[in-house]
Design brief:
globular, 443 residues, six-stranded mixed β-sheet, single chain, alpha/beta, binds iron/sulfur cluster, 19 strands
Length: 443
């Protein structure tokens, strides 16, 4: 298939990175890509969406990867999966890959194996230069569910549903498929978690996920997990702490030991990122140390510095991501980015195993032996389709109040020339409201 034709199909189907970032997928397609790396690491504890898709839809993934390889003129596609999860892959399909351009590569059971810089290194041996993107080394990184969404788009089906793991302090862990735009509170209630008294919900993994606003938050194309924890759990307490308090604690208690930087996965890959310096400069208002601030642009927000590195219970991850956000907002860029040629020699001894992470997070008791795929016929009366659930410009509504729509109809699109994607109705109904944030559709 012609590359432009593929890009149009993927853009029209509204496909964005389903792993959490939400980058419009069609923009990543390029004839400069030589290796397609499929992110099957699913490295955040308790998350099981990709596991389900790998187990049940491997042939569809392989067929789609072959189409991507042909369209981009790539040399190969590499599915990067942890050795402990190899049993999920159908052995007959695995055997059929022998000698083909679709390969499976076992990666170590470390966190954050799914960070695209770490994953690219673990699957190809290449280090993406600082401040750069995978295509600079001829690589495209794509999430498992995103590949599956491309498979569906090639069959004419746009993104109107999302696979989500529900777990944490729950009687069982389940993976469900829910309509985009459904209220998260309603989804949890239908799944038997309507009573959340004394509990809080995290959208995403325990390391990088965000607290859910149960009043307003809805399922988006990037909702991957809804994890329920007691309000008193340190994961919730840390996410709730205001930035002013996080900075005050850092300024009072940081001993400048730099253990946070020593375990930073991107530092270990050779990047000049020293989060202890960012934390010090931010918490002491040392604004003259511009490099300490600019280095946060290299941070992926993984949280290893906070959960594994800091023994003083400080939160360098939060401070680094806050600074990174401010840099982006003000268009400030680091100019002295370099391309590391090799990883730091101490890297192999400082890798963080998933097991250590689970213990440090205090969530061992929430790890269940299995996750069930549960078919639930979600039938919401109203959905709230966010106009911005992706990186780039918001989609502009193409419908107005009173319009009748069917599931799969295009209802919004980012204007041509801007980074963005297409939005579709996820239920049959009537548009009851269009505002700055949502298109609301009711039955
Ligand atoms: S969150 Fe911390 S450990 Fe992770 S990349 Fe950023 S500074 Fe490094
Ligand atoms: S590990 Fe904690 S105490 Fe040590 S430098 Fe980093 S933030 Fe400060």
């Amino acid at each position: 298939m012609d590359l432009q034709e593929l890009q149009k199909i993927v853009c029209d189907a509204g496909i964005v990175g389903a792993g959490g970032a939400g980058f419009p997928t069609h923009v990543k397609f390029s004839d400069k890509v030589k290796q397609i790396v499929v992110n099957a690491a699913e490295c955040e504890p308790l998350m099981m969406v990709d596991h389900h898709i790998l187990e049940h839809h491997l042939q569809a993934l392989v067929d789609t990867l072959n189409i991507l390889i042909d369209s981009m003129g790539a040399d190969e596609a590499i599915i990067g999966i942890k050795g402990k999860n190899m049993h999920l892959l159908d052995t007959k399909i695995l055997a059929s890959l022998e000698g083909t351009k679709v390969k499976v590569k076992e990666i170590p059971d470390i966190y954050p194996a799914g960070d695209e810089v770490v994953l690219t290194y673990e699957t190809t041996g290449k280090i993406i230069p600082e401040g750069s993107i995978p295509v600079m080394v001829g690589v495209m990184v794509i999430n498992v569910e995103t590949v599956y969404n491309i498979h569906k788009a090639l069959g004419g089906v746009p993104v109107t549903e999302k696979y989500i793991t529900i777990g944490g302090d729950t009687k069982e862990d389940i993976t469900v498929k829910a309509p985009v735009g459904m209220k998260i509170s309603e989804l949890l209630s239908v799944c038997g978690y309507g009573d959340l008294d004394g509990k809080a919900v995290v959208n995403g993994g325990p390391m990088m996920g965000k607290l859910v606003d149960l009043e307003n938050d809805t399922v988006t194309k990037t909702t991957k997990g809804l994890l329920i924890f007691p309000e008193t759990h340190s994961i919730i307490q840390r996410k709730r702490m205001p930035m002013s308090m996080t900075l005050k604690r850092a300024s009072a208690a940081c001993c400048n030991c730099h253990m946070c930087s020593d375990v930073c996965p991107r530092n270990l890959l050779g990047y000049d990122i020293n989060v202890h310096k960012t934390l010090r400069a931010a918490s002491h208002s040392e604004v003259q140390d511009t490099e300490a601030f600019l280095q946060s642009a290299l941070c992926c927000g993984c949280g290893v510095c906070t959960v594994i590195g800091c023994q003083q219970m400080l939160d360098p991850q939060k401070i680094s991501m806050e600074v990174k956000g401010l840099l982006g907002k003000h268009g400030l860029k680091r100019k002295n980015n370099k391309a590391p040629e090799k990883v730091r020699p101490e890297r192999s001894s400082r890798l963080v195993s998933s097991s250590l992470l689970i213990d440090r997070l205090g969530i061992r008791k929430y790890v269940k032996p299995s996750v069930e795929r549960r078919y639930i016929d979600f039938d919401p009366d109203t959905v709230y389709i966010e106009l911005k659930q992706h990186v780039g410009a918001p989609a502009a509504a193409l419908v107005k109040k009173g319009d009748k729509v069917s599931a799969g109809d295009v209802i919004a699109k980012t204007p041509d020339g801007s980074l963005g994607t297409t939005m579709h109705a996820s239920i049959n109904g009537t548009v009851s409201e269009v505002n700055d944030r949502f298109i609301i559709i009711s039955k």
